[in-house]
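Researcher: We plan to redesign the surface later, but first we want a full-length starting point. Tokens attached.
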């Protein structure tokens, strides 16, 4: 009897917190997919992950990543320019070998 009571409490908890409703919606979406995905588990993970609110820390990391990409591109461009400038002052490879 105690195990049934615990199960019922847990079921009510899942229902109250919206877990059952969300799982049902995702499973219905999987059922209604015209072409079933290779991995049902990946489908569930993707759709459950999309249902959760964005973590503010993730957004900060995305912004930082975009910033770093910009800095990287600027550094690569600067490197190209400096190499071209340096090549103007260095003798060609053939002259170096002759010496």
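Model: Full-length starting sequence:
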């Amino acid at each position: 009897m105690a195990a049934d009571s615990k199960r019922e409490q847990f079921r009510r908890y899942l229902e109250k917190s919206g877990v059952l409703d969300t799982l049902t919606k995702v499973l219905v979406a999987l059922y209604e997919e015209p072409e079933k995905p290779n991995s049902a588990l990946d489908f569930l993970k993707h759709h459950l992950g999309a249902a959760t609110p964005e973590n503010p820390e993730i957004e900060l990391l995305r912004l930082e990543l975009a910033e770093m990409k910009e800095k990287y591109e600027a550094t690569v461009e600067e490197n190209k320019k400096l190499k071209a400038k340096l090549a103007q002052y260095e003798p060609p490879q053939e002259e170096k070998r002759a010496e």
